[in-house]
Model the fold of this input.
Amino acid sequence: MGEITTEHFTWLSIALFFLGALGVLVRRNAITVLMCVELMLNAVNLALLAYARQWGNMEGQVLAFFVIAIAAVEAAIGLAIVVAIFRLRQTTNLDDLSILNE
Amino acid sequence: MNPIVFWSLALTSLVSGAFVVGKRSPMASALALAICLTALAGLFAALSAPFLFIIQILVYTGAVVVLIVFVIMLLDLREADLRAQSIQRGKLLFSALVCLLAGGLMLLRIAGARPAPPPAAIPPDFGTVENLADIVFTRYVLPFEIVSLILLVGILGAVVIAKRGE
Done:
């Protein structure tokens, strides 16, 4: 297992990002899709922090800090929308929500 | 950084991440997400980001996952509703192919790049609250204010959207 370098963190970040992307593509439950988006955002944060350390530059950490703040807002709004839709339609299945393409 | 720590945290985050994507029940996904985010917080600490390590645990596992669990329990999803959401095999295959292709292209691009220089010398206060605040409240003060405005709009928006319409 040799030395752990920035590349290792980048690989892990790519793997987690596309794992989340796969979830967004295949899952049809709105809440699960939101969780997969959170997974993707965290993968990006990992890459930001790895490169902030690589270059000894704090700006990557500042950006990750902003990403976490925006991700929290995204989760709150997204879940509020899911609750509102569930109240109207009694479903969280994204395939049932196709008013805009009918 | 200790390779054993890295590989165990990386494996934990990948396996629990796979559970987030693969579990049929949203509640199981949410709990796997909590584990995944905590493992990532450990990696943040290993990357000399102690402030973001705390923020990750407080905001993500503390607030976002709890909010998700709250909503799942609030909605009371029926078994039939979940069964209708099972994944078709063709769609899964195609999506996995697209993700593998895009991820493979990224890996190829990184592997082809010049080897990265060894990490620059890290000052001992790198990633501490003081260090981060120095930059956030000087060079990034305008983005910081905009983020606070977005947070405010987000709070109001969540209340307005989730409120029972008359």
User: Anything to note?
Assistant: The CA atoms of residues 13 and 43 of chain A lie 5 Å apart. Chain A has a mean pLDDT of 89. The two ends of chain A are 54 Å apart (CA to CA). The longest helix of chain A spans residues 59-89.
